[in-house]
Design goal:
The protein is an alpha/beta fold and 309 residues long. The chain contains nine helices and 14 strands.
Length: 309
């Protein structure tokens, strides 16, 4: 299979399946097998962790990303677990940037001793949605390196999902690549048109409650630095469309904008929703901990730490 054939197949991954019959694991295995025979150039990356979220909805008085879980491999904060995941990747991630609120920086004192991690502070005026936050840190990033962007509330994602997403991003020379989970009634629904392009986002938090089968992101996006020019254009467009300047602009809405601009966007429905945990409320944190508590060390290693697809 050629790179072109693989990209076309990824544009319409659900064509041969009824909604409930699609299996992310089988699709993941197929993508891995098809890409294994193609040359994948090894590149250097930089990572950005968006950790400026407050913990108010979780009833905590410190940054949400520092919330601790009892993982089968030991107790760690969400941020520590993400940093550990990045360190375990076979791909070369030379620098990690953690985006935090200016007033929250003292909470991260111990972590600032890590020479590979740089903390970037944003003022309250700069924190107006994830799109604005990202654009605000552009000047700190290396323009020659693609970016792995993690949400700061990502509790768990299998390492193999991240690895395969990076490899496909390199192989197909995409502008933006991200793993997705195909599920019923997703909280954030990424909707494709007949050509397989993401053309609409239905976000429950914005009053758009999608009912049915659709993809949801996994709190990880891989993209080229060059997209910052389109990001600035997107934000300017959103400011014109929105009635209030103070409204937040979410990064996920940038994706349909890129699709309309004919950028090479590649959503990968390779993730099992049962294995992806991100939190935004105390109830979701309790649920994630219950799942983790039932998992043995060997099971945790098999699902989350192994290289095997």
């Amino acid at each position: 299979m050629s790179k072109k054939d693989l990209f076309l197949e990824l544009q319409d991954p659900f064509k041969d399946f009824a909604n409930k019959n699609f299996c992310s694991h089988k699709f993941k295995q197929a993508v891995y097998k098809q890409s294994a025979n193609l040359f994948i150039e090894q590149k250097e990356y930089q990572a950005v962790i968006m950790a400026a979220g407050k913990g108010s909805r979780m009833n905590i008085d410190y940054p949400k990303t520092l919330y601790e879980f009892k993982y089968p491999s030991g107790n760690r904060s969400i941020l520590s677990n993400t940093l550990n995941l990045i360190n375990m990747l076979p791909q070369n991630v030379s620098k990690v940037f953690v985006i935090v609120r200016e007033e929250d920086l003292p909470f991260f004192n111990k972590m600032q001793k890590n020479t590979n991690v740089e903390f970037i502070t944003l003022s309250e005026n700069q924190i107006k949605g994830t799109a604005n936050c990202l654009l605000s840190v552009k000047e700190f990033l290396n323009k020659d390196l693609d970016i792995l962007m993690f949400w700061g509330d990502l509790v768990l994602i299998p390492k193999s999902d991240v690895e395969l997403s990076i490899d496909i991003h390199n192989l197909l020379e995409n502008s933006l690549t991200f793993p997705t989970r195909y599920k019923l009634n997703p909280y954030v629904a990424f909707l494709r048109n007949r050509k397989g392009k993401i053309n609409e986002i239905a976000h429950k938090n914005e009053g758009k409650n999608f009912r049915g089968w659709a993809e949801q992101d996994c709190s990880l996006f891989i993209f080229r630095y060059s997209l910052f020019s389109e990001l600035a254009e997107f934000i300017d467009t959103q400011k014109i469309l929105q009635s209030k300047e103070s409204n937040e602009i979410d990064f996920v809405h940038f994706i349909p904008f890129l699709s309309y601009a004919n950028k090479r966007i590649c959503p990968l429905p390779i993730s099992n929703d049962d294995y992806i945990y991100d939190i935004n409320t105390n109830d979701s944190a309790i649920y994630a901990q219950k799942k983790l508590s039932k998992m043995s060390k060997s099971e945790f290693k098999k699902i989350y730490l192994n290289n095997q697809i």
